[in-house]
Design a protein that fits this description.
This protein is of the alpha/beta class and about 525 residues long. Helix content is about 35%, strand content about 20%. It contains 16 helices and 21 strands. The relative contact order is 0.13.
């Protein structure tokens, strides 16, 4: 049952006077649930509990934290159809998407549990003492990664499960040893409350300290601002708009003690059509990309919003097929009327720019909050001259650029902002013959694909879901995959420390049996 309260550790609380409801975009009306916005006192209490919990939780062995993460996955699964039905009501997304995202969420938690069980992620390094070294003795110095402290995670609008309450940010921070305070997304607060209850139940079952997790509601920005500015919060995770992410980044850097904000933000995910992709028949790629552009109403951060090709009849054929196929697909409901309105505003603004030709625009009557897909075409010169065309339109929308030659294509890529993904379609010979284009693309992205579509992000140790700004605030880190854990830790060195008082990962006997770098050699000895 949805109570609409805040979870301050294991306690339900509704001290605040401000309330709000979530919205059902398919039915175009408010849901039945009312939520209490967190008060300043509740924020302080949640952070104080997290700070106390950190003193204990940071020292728990990996196996105990792994047990907690696995229990969260089990409790999410135990929520059953109530979670799926609530998700669909608040997002307008279909049942299959909800079940798939739930599976991904549980898979992420279990992947981090396995990482903790193995243990080598702490990157233990040992340099032994050489007391007789001339001209100066060498100290015994040992290094490993340690958690930062309480982390604030902002739920994402477009992934109510996989990037929200128990999503990748929360899973990786808990795995690192950091308590988490979630600022629940107001568009799916009921979904967040159900998942929050699963996390709290798992914490109690596995003996976690009270305050290892809290969930706070808010319809505006004030609660999030207070959390980021709170002196006991040590890091922030965010998935959302460029405006939201950069505002939080600025706020965190204006603190007396600046803290890292790991924000995954905007991206138009350029796709490069090299000659052989269109030489024989570009229709299969056009059909595949029509589906990718419109998938989930285009509400993916990896949506292909820009396609670059060489001007000519082959590209004309691709554009015609892409436009035809996009219009064949049934439009789908967007997450919220606000997102729908922003999509229409962005589409209208870009469609009116100089040199733009609208090649596809769905004009049939649709249900409320249903996004009508659109494809635009523009010359390379006009695209380069107008940076408005370089910005993301969040929805089923893409711009195809007709480049005069490979040099212009390379110039366009060099003038783009940082992106999450970049895709090359063509042959291996194309890659070799267009190395300048490929290098330009690689310099702007976190993940570069060959002959595929960027929508769909695998969760594993090789994935990079980040990129140069504004794709993310720090291109060195990913928000997806097990290496996301490195966002929430810092290296600490122990010099000449008594062996029995060292962390287990650094003790001579290697009681955890993990792989360590000892005197320049990876070993379990």
């Amino acid at each position: 049952m949805i109570s609409g309260t805040n979870a301050i550790g294991s306690k339900s609380s509704k001290q605040g006077n401000k309330t709000f409801k979530t919205f059902n975009p398919k039915e175009n009306k408010d849901t039945e649930w009312t939520f209490y916005e967190a008060s300043s006192n509740e924020i302080d209490e949640a952070v104080a509990l997290a700070t106390d919990a950190f003193k204990v939780y940071k020292d728990f062995p990996g196996t105990k934290k792994a047990e907690f993460l696995e229990a969260i996955a089990d409790e999410i699964e135990a929520l059953g159809d109530e979670l799926i039905e609530t998700y669909c009501k608040e997002s307008g997304l279909p049942d299959g998407r909800a079940r798939g995202e739930r599976g991904r969420t549980m898979g992420q938690l279990r992947a981090f549990a396995n990482l903790l069980k193995e243990g080598s992620w702490v990157e233990a390094v040992i340099e032994k003492a050489q007391p007789n070294r001339e001209p100066m003795p060498k100290s015994d110095i040992r290094k490993m990664l340690f958690p930062l402290g309480p982390v604030v995670v902002f739920g994402a609008s477009n992934f109510p499960l996989a990037f929200s309450t128990a999503g990748g940010d929360t899973a990786s921070a808990l795995a690192a040893g950091c308590p988490v305070i979630v600022k629940s997304h107001p568009m799916h607060a009921a979904t967040g409350e159900l998942v929050s209850s699963a996390i709290i139940k798992a914490a109690e079952k596995t003996g976690m300290p009270n305050g290892v997790f809290s969930n706070l509601n808010s319809s505006g920005i004030e609660v999030g601002q207070q959390l980021v500015k709170h002196p006991k919060v040590k890091a922030v995770g965010f998935t959302g708009s460029i405006n939201g992410g950069t505002a939080l980044y600025k706020l965190a850097n204006e603190r007396d003690e600046p803290i890292p904000v790991f924000a995954e933000m905007g991206s138009i995910n350029p796709v490069v059509l090299l000659p052989s992709a269109l030489k024989n028949d570009g229709k299969p790629w056009a059909t595949k990309y029509a589906s990718s552009i419109t998938m989930g109403a285009g509400q993916f951060c990896t949506n292909p919003g820009l396609v670059l090709g060489l001007k000519g009849s082959k590209l004309d054929s691709f554009i015609n097929t892409l436009s035809e196929e996009v219009l064949k697909l049934e439009p789908t409901c967007m997450l919220h009327p606000n997102i729908y309105a922003k999509y229409n505003k962005g589409k209208k603004e870009l469609s009116a720019q100089k040199g733009i030709t609208v090649t596809a625009d769905y004009i049939k009557a649709t249900n409320p909050n249903t996004a009508q897909p659109s494809i635009l075409k523009v010359s390379g010169a006009d695209f380069l001259a107008n940076t408005k065309l370089h910005k993301e339109v969040f929805g089923p929308f893409s711009v195809v650029v007709e480049c005069e030659n490979a040099l212009e294509m390379e110039s366009i890529l060099n003038h783009l902002e940082g992106q999450l993904t970049g895709t090359v379609l063509g042959s291996e010979d194309d890659l070799e013959n267009n190395s300048g284009v490929v290098d330009a693309l690689q310099s702007r992205v976190g993940r570069i694909l060959f002959n595929g579509v960027p929508t769909g992000v695998e969760v594993n140790s090789s994935m990079v879901h980040g990129g140069p700004f504004p794709a993310s605030t720090d291109a060195r880190f990913t928000s997806v995959g097990t290496s996301a854990i490195k966002r929430w830790v810092r290296p600490v060195s122990y010099q000449d420390w008594p062996n029995k008082l060292l962390p287990l990962a650094l003790q001579n006997e290697n009681p955890l049996k993990i792989t360590r770098l000892v005197e320049g050699e990876y070993t379990k000895n």
